[in-house]
Amino acid sequence: MSTTFAIPSRCTLCPRRCGADRAAGRAGYCGAAGTLKVARAALHFWEEPCISGTKGSGTVFFSGCALRCCYCQNYPISAQAFGKEITVDRLAEIFLELQAQGAHNINLVTPGQWQPWIIAALDQARAGGLHLPIVCNTGGYETVESVEGWRGYVDIWLADLKYASPDLAKDLSAAPDYPAAAKAAIEAMLAQAGHPVMDADGILQRGVILRHLAIPGHIDDSFAVLDQMAAWNDADPGCFIPSLMSQFTPFYQAAEHGIGRRITTYEYRRVVNYAMDKGLTAGYMQQKSSAREEYTPSFDLTGV
Ligand code: SF4
Questions:
Q1: How far is it, in rounded angstroms, from Cα 109 to Cα 99?
Q2: pTM of the complete model
Q3: Out of 114, 124, 260, 271, which could bridge 92 as a Cys pair, Cβ 3.0 to 4.6 Å?
Q4: Nearest to 110 by CA among 60, 184, 162, 58
């Protein structure tokens, strides 16, 4: 099947609005140019339990990223253009292959810079029988227009709220507008997806998971992020599922930005306790362990 869609000639798909002529094959700040690029597509078992379930999340990692954080654990994909160029037709096949493998959902990791390509592939895959919920796994640095552009395609937003401080966002992601952009985008996601809906097996079908990765030495900013999350939750209790993450690892250029270590147990415990005190209890906290980390329900982790 051949699919037509418009490739941006002045790209404004993300808040950078760098204006790259992607139709002419030019790459933007995110590293994405005119041909779709994907780094990995496989069942993935390490998301929150309501996403990974028992059969895995059908995860597709897209190349490039509008944020390119200095500590990115996927930096070969996000910042170094690792990936394979594929057609929209092939992406549609990949979605159907993941469904055939038993995936609970299709999990689009950092898809924003490829929105027109992916929407064309989703249309094609749906015509071919794709029926799974679609997860948009995003760093939260989205425009409201982009969130609206996913309406009718994305069922679940798996979004980060990384920073509250523009200075920290500038230092670690070269995006001082991140806090304002992410706040507006997440509010659009919450309005679009509505309250979380699970199926009978506890697998999320619709809604928003808001993640926060605690960064060593910056737990004051984590507190400010949690204040924002708590404000949303207070205004509309249960409107999203919070997910606190302890897995920060000093990948890529982290050491050059003064965060060349893992978070301590004490720091993470303070962040978890702050979330609990703010009423963000109905979600996930990542167990901190020297051997491995995994998601467990928060009620198991009070007092971590
Ligand atoms: S998605 Fe990429 S090319 Fe488009 S505006 Fe953002 S950084 Fe520029």
A1: 16
A2: 0.93
A3: 124
A4: 60
